[in-house]
Amino acid sequence: MENAIEVRGLCKRYPDFQLQDVSFTVPAGSIVGFIGENGAGKTTTMRAILGTLRPDGGEVTVLGKPAGHTKTLAQVGAVFEDAFFYEVLSPAEVGSCLASIQPGFDKEYYRQLLAEFELSPAKKMKDFSRGMRMKLRLAAALAHHPRLLLLDEATSGLDPVMRAEILDLLRRFIQDEEHSVLLSSHITADLEKAADYIVYIQKGHILFEKETDLLLEEYGVVRAGAEALAALPADLVVASRSNAFGQAALVKDRRAAAALLPDAVLDKPTLDDIMQFYSERRSV
Fold first, then answer.
1. First-to-final CA distance of the chain
2. Are 78 and 146 in contact (CB under 8 A)?
3. Model confidence at 184, in pLDDT bands (50, 70, 90)?
4. What DSSP state is assigned to residue 127?
5. Whether domain 3-214 has CATH 3.40.50.300
């Protein structure tokens, strides 16, 4: 399978933060969920992929070309949470502006997307809600029929119904296996539903890159006494914690933990569970 994105040894240094040897791939025809806490390096990495940020080291290949290549940019649609259009413009005016500068901009498809997202073409952006602005950015990113979408918190501010519609749109987008999506989101339940793979970044490091189904099937949350959990092999346990309900640990192999602790309660984890336990580790 070809890769839509290949990130190899990406490094970027700032006074108070650095990406360190970031490597992962986005297979063609897939949706990859990019997770991590605020400040972990998701947006920095995505800007390096788009080519708007020059790394200090490493290589980024997008659709077979170096990141930022002219031919590549024409085939990429991007939505960043902090991006904006001028508030005095309406969606119709945004479309006219983009059509004049963006090769392949499909005015009719753009109008269809505005209708699907229930956005008035004439309403000024200053009167839009946060969710409406995000939908406009997504419509603009899709209107030139890109092969790759980079979406940074693109479902942020949307209600559950609209988020479900966006996820359905993304599934349809990748159906021909020529299109791909890299989607960062703090709404991890959305990624559990839509993402084929999960890439987890923490403090500028990639912790893992796994198929979503395998990740949620292999990992587990074990609930047992402190003494029992302490007996588990160290390489099996990600982290443990105690709360009002007792002791719990995240393990990398639920079946192995079940064999070692047959009387323990083992649950299938959510991505939120996995992130919370990893964030509690003392070292990366």
1. 31
2. no
3. very high
4. G
5. yes
